[in-house]
């Protein structure tokens, strides 16, 4: 079918050319005012259509501009399309049609895909349109199609320009009122949840060799004097490194999970704390513990594209994937559901690593059930701090949560 349309478009040029002598012969043999009037009145339109049929559309210079490539959820996106002619022949109109990617089409932006511009003798023309309130994600505008034609609609020609524009809509995030996480001990008092690492650049003493000590820690001079293996004793430094696990189970609060995770990462990284991320989506993406703005942009880009396509329960992730985290860090789990099995897995990690905190996201009107309150009490008693965070009130995560 497409091949037949191409042949018909090419044949149309020659049909228009042959239409002039046919009308001339008709007026010549028919004679009279009417036939000659018909010939002279149709002649300008036919000549214009013939000229348009040979118009070099491939010589048009077409650009599409976006003010930036990164947006936040809710930001309006202004797109500017400019067309420059390199041929003097006036064009009555340009009909420009945008070719969006599939995920952009699903956002009900059909009203912005076409634009009719009456150009005339203008050498350059442009138009802009606004795409409002896109959800988070990565989007592409692949190409655009330009059509030209005459005022009577006798002739039409089109061409497709492959101009690819990519932009990313990041999830909504904000800076939270952050303070160092604490745990409840059995007596009800609070103790800071810090981990300690050895500063191997500063030796503060010596001690007997123990199994597991590094070979480089051996103090050979002291070992020779005492005739037994002695190792250096190092000063211990606090470590505030965090490792965040985000639950990607499909539910109506998933966007809130993404937004809270982005806000949490933004806050702790801005305070100089190093953080890693694990998401239990289909690919099970993991990011090492790093710091800085560049690391945050990398994590934010991942959160912009992530989908709720969880294929395994979060408990399985805690059991298998965290074995590969070698550093002594505080674990943060962000989820929407709490279960007995989850509390047990978190307790095991807490006893092994020393720190585990769960943020459970709930809707503003959602009531915490008695079974959930019981599980939260059990988790806190085992040293796993569990906090209910209400949708739209993320700052309460660091002031004790909301057990309504």
From TrEMBL:
UniProt superkingdom: Bacteria
Name by which UniProt lists this protein: DUF58 domain-containing protein
Keyword Phosphoprotein: no
Keywords from the named record: Membrane, Transmembrane, Transmembrane helix
Listed transmembrane segments: 12-29
Residues covered by the DUF58 domain: 206-352
């Amino acid at each position: 079918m497409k091949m037949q349309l191409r042949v018909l478009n090419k044949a149309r040029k020659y049909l228009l050319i042959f239409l002039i002598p046919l009308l001339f012969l008709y007026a010549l043999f028919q004679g009279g005012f009417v036939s000659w009037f018909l010939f002279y009145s149709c002649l300008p339109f036919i000549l214009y259509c013939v000229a348009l049929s040979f118009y070099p559309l491939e010589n048009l210079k077409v650009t599409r501009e976006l003010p930036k490539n990164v947006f936040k959820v809710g930001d309006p996106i202004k797109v500017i399309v400019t067309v420059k002619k390199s041929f003097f022949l006036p064009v009555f109109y340009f009909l420009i049609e945008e070719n969006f990617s599939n995920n952009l089409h699903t956002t009900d932006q059909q009203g912005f895909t076409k634009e009719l511009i009456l150009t005339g003798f203008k050498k350059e023309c442009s138009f802009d349109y606004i795409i409002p309130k896109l959800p988070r994600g990565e989007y592409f505008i692949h190409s655009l199609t330009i059509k030209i034609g005459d005022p009577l609609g006798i002739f039409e020609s089109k061409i497709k320009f492959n101009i690819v524009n990519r932009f990313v809509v990041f999830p909504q995030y904000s800076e939270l009122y952050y303070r160092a996480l604490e745990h409840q001990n059995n007596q009800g008092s609070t103790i800071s949840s810090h981990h300690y690492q050895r500063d191997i650049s500063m030796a503060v003493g010596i001690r007997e060799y123990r199994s597991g000590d590094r070979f480089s820690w051996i103090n050979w001079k002291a070992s020779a004097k005492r005739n037994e293996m002695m190792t250096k004793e190092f000063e211990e430094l606090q470590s505030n490194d965090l490792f965040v696990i985000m639950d990607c189970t499909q539910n109506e609060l998933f966007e809130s999970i993404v937004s809270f995770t982005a806000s949490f990462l933004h806050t702790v990284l801005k305070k100089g704390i190093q953080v890693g991320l694990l998401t239990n989506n289909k690919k099970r993406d993991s990011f090492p513990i790093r710091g800085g703005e560049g690391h945050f942009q990398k994590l934010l880009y991942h959160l912009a594209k992530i989908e709720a396509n969880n294929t395994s329960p979060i408990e399985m992730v805690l059991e298998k994937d965290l074995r590969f985290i070698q550093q002594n860090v505080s674990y943060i789990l962000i989820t929407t559901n709490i279960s007995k099995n989850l509390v047990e897995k978190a307790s095991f990690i807490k006893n092994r690593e020393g720190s585990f905190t769960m943020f459970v996201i709930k809707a503003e009107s959602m009531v915490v059930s008695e079974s959930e309150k019981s599980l939260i009490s059990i988790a806190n008693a085992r040293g796993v701090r569990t906090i209910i965070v209400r949708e739209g009130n993320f700052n309460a995560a660091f002031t004790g949560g909301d057990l309504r």
